[in-house]
């Protein structure tokens, strides 16, 4: 469970390689630090007012804090020691001490993490909702945070994510704006179509405005009255055009919402964590261009049978970059993220750079890709099974499949869903459909 807080400069100096500098007159640093591990956490520190790197917190700071900054510092200190209740109190105190926007965002995010750790999904969602709406918290921060896995598996997070997708005054428009940018890339002519829909509808409306009086005169008859059939035909064409154009505009809007929903699911999928055969934990997005994950979800016996059949075609599947990802319904094992221990994995994993936008940029280097490719084997282990199950259940509902059925989902090299089906996949058919990694068609997928 991640915490956002204002760390003392001593703690910041010890983790210089994880810091990101925010350009402000008063210098603030943001990074991410696990209290019990070497992974990073979102922190905020004021270099202009913090003590020197050699100084250490006084004993009195453990019991008293007079500013929002010191409250968040103290709360983070309590949090790192497992004293979640005291940490929660300090974050609440920080919010009551007229904090700056950065301090308020830090306190709210930390407070949400404490509530998530305590299993209070509704309270955690409310804190995140306020941070998104009032303090410009990026939704990607919530998606990236491995310590919020317990919250992301709850219905409250699904509701929060749906609100963020729709946008609004209660939660802000940041996440929806990001989704629409992706949507415009995938459907570049939607804006042009909408322009013509509006322009042609306006033209038809103006024509109808002038045609209706002529139609009335034609019906009344008399000298100089226009031909009734010709006028009625013009009015019918204009009105019919308006109806058709409005229907097309509505249809395009509906398709955009469906696309935004799919992009949201794809984004959620890309942030799901895996443990590779080398015991390294990565997010699915880091395997793009490197592997084609095949998610096998269902009862243990069905998944085991699917893996057993796949092993017969192991060589050919490896040539195609197939990576098996078994997800067993109701699996109670938590391989990496647990509520106890603030996100300390049960299995010791190799040290990783921080996961997020900064890491995504670094993974584009040839060296990083080559190293990751060498670690990918035939099978991976899911981390935080609850998150995986929730995503698969949402995918099943969107495709009209009964939730909980045994299914498989094949992903492309770019991370999007290639196809899915019920039961055990036909591996021979997959070998025929999926080109080898070095083939030209595979390069087009990237």
UniProtKB/TrEMBL annotation:
Record carries keyword Nucleotide-binding: no
NCBIfam families: TPR_END_plus (NF047558)
SMART domains: TPR (SM00028)
PROSITE patterns (alphabetical): TPR, TPR_REGION
Protein name: Photosystem I assembly protein ycf3
Transmembrane annotation, as ranges: 195-212, 232-251
Record keywords, A-Z: Membrane, Repeat, TPR repeat, Transmembrane, Transmembrane helix
GO CC term (a single one): chloroplast
Pfam assignment, any one: TPR_2
GO biological process: photosystem II oxygen evolving complex assembly
TPR repeats: 68-101
SUPFAM superfamilies per UniProt: TPR-like
Record InterPro entries: LPA1-like, TPR-like_helical_dom_sf, TPR_2, TPR_rpt
Domain of life of the native organism: Eukaryota
């Amino acid at each position: 469970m991640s915490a956002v807080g204002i760390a003392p400069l001593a703690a910041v100096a010890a983790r210089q390689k994880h810091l990101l500098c925010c350009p402000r007159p008063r210098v603030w640093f943001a990074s991410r630090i696990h209290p019990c591990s070497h992974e990073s956490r979102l922190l905020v520190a004021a270099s202009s007012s913090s003590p020197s790197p050699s100084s250490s917190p006084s004993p009195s700071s453990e019991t008293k804090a007079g500013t929002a900054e010191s409250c968040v510092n103290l709360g983070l200190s309590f949090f790192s020691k497992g004293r979640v209740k005291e940490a929660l109190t300090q974050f609440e105190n920080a919010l009551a001490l007229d904090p700056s926007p950065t301090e308020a965002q830090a306190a709210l995010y930390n407070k949400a993490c404490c509530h998530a750790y305590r299993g209070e999904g509704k309270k955690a969602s409310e804190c995140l909702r306020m941070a998104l709406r009032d303090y410009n918290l990026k939704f990607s921060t919530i998606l990236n945070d491995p310590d919020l896995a317990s919250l992301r598996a709850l219905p409250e997070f699904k509701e929060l994510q749906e609100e963020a997708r729709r946008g609004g005054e209660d939660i802000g428009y940041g996440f929806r704006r990001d989704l629409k940018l992706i949507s415009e890339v995938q459907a570049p002519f939607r804006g042009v179509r909408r322009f013509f829909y509006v322009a042609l509808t306006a033209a038809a409306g103006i024509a109808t405005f002038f045609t209706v009086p002529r139609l009335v005169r034609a019906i009344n008859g008399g000298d100089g009255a226009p031909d009734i059939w010709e006028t009625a035909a013009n009015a019918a064409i204009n009105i019919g055009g308006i109806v058709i154009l409005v229907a097309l505009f509505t249809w395009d809007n509906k398709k955009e919402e469906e696309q935004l929903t799919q992009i949201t699911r794809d984004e959620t999928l890309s942030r799901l964590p895996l443990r590779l055969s080398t015991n390294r934990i990565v997010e699915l997005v880091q395997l793009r261009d490197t592997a084609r994950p095949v998610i096998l979800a269902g009862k243990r016996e069905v998944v085991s049978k699917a893996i057993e059949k796949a092993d017969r075609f192991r060589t050919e599947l490896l040539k195609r970059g197939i990576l098996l990802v078994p997800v067993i319904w109701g699996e109670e094992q938590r391989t990496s993220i647990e509520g106890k221990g603030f996100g300390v994995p049960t299995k010791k994993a190799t040290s990783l750079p921080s996961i997020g936008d900064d890491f995504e940029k670094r993974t584009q280097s040839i060296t990083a890709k080559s190293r990751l490719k060498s670690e990918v084997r035939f099978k991976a282990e899911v981390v935080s099974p609850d998150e995986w199950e929730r995503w698969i259940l949402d995918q099943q509902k969107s495709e009209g499949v009964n939730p909980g059925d045994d299914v498989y989902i094949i992903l492309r090299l770019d991370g999007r869903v290639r196809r899915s089906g019920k039961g055990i996949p036909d591996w021979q058919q997959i070998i025929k459909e999926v080109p080898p990694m070095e083939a030209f068609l595979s390069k087009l997928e990237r």
